[in-house]
Amino acid sequence: MIVMIYKVKLNLEWSMKYMSKYLVNNYDMIIFDCDGVLMNTNLLKCEAFGKAVEGYSEEIVNAFVENCKNTFGVSRYVKFKNFFSEFADESYDERKYNMYLNSYANICKEIYNFADITPGVIELLKELSDFNKYLFVASGSDEQELNEAFKSRGLSGFFKGIYGSPKSKLECVSLILNNHPHLKAVFIGDAISDLNTAKHYDMDFIYMSKYTVQSLEKDEICRGECTITINELSDLL
User: Fold this and answer.
1) In a domain, 6, yes or no
2) Which residues does residue 208 pair with via DSSP β-bridges, in sequence order?
3) How far apart are CA 116 and CA 227, in angstroms?
4) Are residues 92 and 174 in the same domain?
């Protein structure tokens, strides 16, 4: 038993040593998801979806929030359009749709003002910048909101581009890769939508697990198919 514990400890130490400078040594360009990677906002934003459609039954609102957890990375524009047919069981209403979007946007702006930046973000971004790495954000969150939030939180200067909806995550990453076709890139995300985006472009994928809100099944898929799994970004320092 003592030998087994010792071996596990050695493996963990080797793993952390291997991941030190992992990004610096292996990639020219790092693409980050935002929510659940750079900022601890996942649960807050899931709750915001529920607040935006207040007035419906608790059952409908809870089902919508749960769906949002398992489709994290999918644009709000898609989710609120789907809300009518898949949850409220009613015809699409343009007026309500825009009302939900505006309500959600206002809540998100508040969230980005006070949400915690995840451990290791500033240190890692500084280190990667010192090594002249190309840093980008590709998120399912609204692009204008992200740029405003990153500027107000002092993060925008680290990135060469911050992209989000209404473009899809695939479109965001396509734009980045097409503008820098000769750079070896990796995508860091916390959801299966991030994994699928990386696979679509044959990129390496680092799965950050600590703040994910997706189901256990999707979590296991991400762990099984990623290049490496980390708990938080500080693991990569």
Assistant:
1) no
2) 230
3) 26
4) no
Asked if 57 and 105 sit in the same domain, the reply is yes
Return the sign of the alpha-carbon dihedral for residues 135, 140, 146, 150: negative
Of 79, 114, 149, the one marking the end of a domain is 114
CA distance 6 to 12: 10
For 132, phi then psi, to 5°, come to 60, 35
Q: Is the dihedral of CA 8, 12, 13, 15 positive or negative?
A: positive
Question: Do 81 and 174 reside in the same domain of the chain?
Answer: no
Q: Is the Cβ–Cβ distance between 28 and 176 less than 8 Å?
A: no
205 neighbors 227 (Cβ within 8 angstroms): yes
Q: Which of 36, 39, 64, 40 is nearest to 50 (CA)?
A: 64
Q: Which of 103, 78, 81, 101 is nearest to 90 (CA)?
A: 81
Q: What is the pLDDT along the chain (237 residues), one digit of tens a residue?
A: 444 444 343 344 445 455 668 899 999 999 999 999 999 999 999 999 999 999 999 999 999 999 998 887 788 899 999 999 999 999 999 999 999 999 999 999 999 999 999 999 999 999 999 999 999 999 988 999 999 999 999 999 999 999 998 999 999 999 999 999 999 999 999 999 999 999 999 999 999 999 999 999 999 999 999 999 999 999 998
3-state helix, strand, coil in the chain (%, to 5): 60, 15, 25
Q: What is the pTM of this model?
A: 0.88
The CATH number of whichever domain residue 229 belongs to comes to 3.40.50.1000
> Whole-angstrom Cα distance, residue 2 to residue 185?
41
